[in-house]
Amino acid sequence: MASFNSFGSSYTLFATLAPETVPAAEKVRRHPKYYLNGGDTHFLVENYIFRVHRYFFERESAIFREKLGIPPASGQNPKGSSDSNPIPLDDVREEDFSRFLWVFYNPKYSIYDANVDEWSSILKLAYDWKFAEVKRLASRYLEQFLIDPIQKIELYQQYEIDRRLLIPSYMALINRREPLSITEGCCLSLETALMIATARECARGKPLESGKHSPTVASVNKESMVEIIKEVFGLGNVSPGSPNLDPIYNGAGPAAFAATPLSPSKIVTSPSKEHRDSLKSPTHKLKKHLPPTDDLPPLLIGQSPTKPVTPAAPPYLTNLFQPPLTPPGTIKQSVSTGSKEDKEKTKEKDANSQSIVSAAPTGQSVVRPSHPRNRT
Fold this sequence. Notes:
34% of the residues lie in helices and 6% in strands. The protein contains 13 helices and 6 strands. It has helices at residues 54-60, 62-68, 94-102, 116-129, 132-142, 149-158, 167-175, 182-187, 190-204, 222-232, 273-278, 331-334, 340-359; strands at residues 2-3, 12-13, 29-35, 41-45, 48-52, 87-88. It is elongated and about 135 Å long. 11% of the residues are buried.
């Protein structure tokens, strides 16, 4: 139950009403302008009760047709039927809702005297609640104002107004001498900012034979281009120890710090079958399996120019490089080098061995010294 004074401006609730359904009594008031006597729907916006005609809302908006068409629970009044049971409109300011209602209750027929901020508030609610005709009305009156190009582009993109209406704003940004600033680029979307930058380059380029325009080619020299980049990107205080700013394809920049890579065919990663077979020769030498010194970089990081670093052999090759012991009887085939005296001693030993075998009795075997590899 509720009571009001003779002016209809104060609002008081009795304790019989549920506190969770109605805001605090001392904070809620009837709106001084849009609490209409003939209204049939009550809205609660911030601390004000609006009583207006639901006809306009159901006619224009599918959102409100669904909201107002919800049947009440058994034994309860429909939502929005009284001051004690209003329809709350969250995230809406009282000032914006009053401006929106002014479109329907304007006392000056077909004369809408409002500024850019007021039409922007109306446009926002019309977009949120899908009032198509109100949205077109707001955009038509906004076109009568001279709005800053950045502000207009941002407003029209946010509420999805016909982009063809933004052609004059695009032209103003393309024709001006100054490019887009960081602040202006943040107001616009990334896509819009890049398209404006492309249009500025095309507008300053020479037309092609087909009649189309293409972005112009930079005509400044290398030193001037570096200065422009420093100025635009705020690199004026680059320290002397920083990498070269020249492009990488000119042989400078970060690529100049990379060491010359080794050829993949020269690098030994694991002992293959051919590699293990080659190790059986006693004349095998380590240098045959290491990368040639010609393929190594002339100077590695941290290396003294007068003390070249000799690459170490991989760990798995430490034991493989030990010459295998050759069994007796195969010395002639395996040894290919040696002095003249060594060769004569070898022939003498072979002759003695053959004489021992021929002098052995029939049926007896000659016991030869066992090879060190076969000893237990």
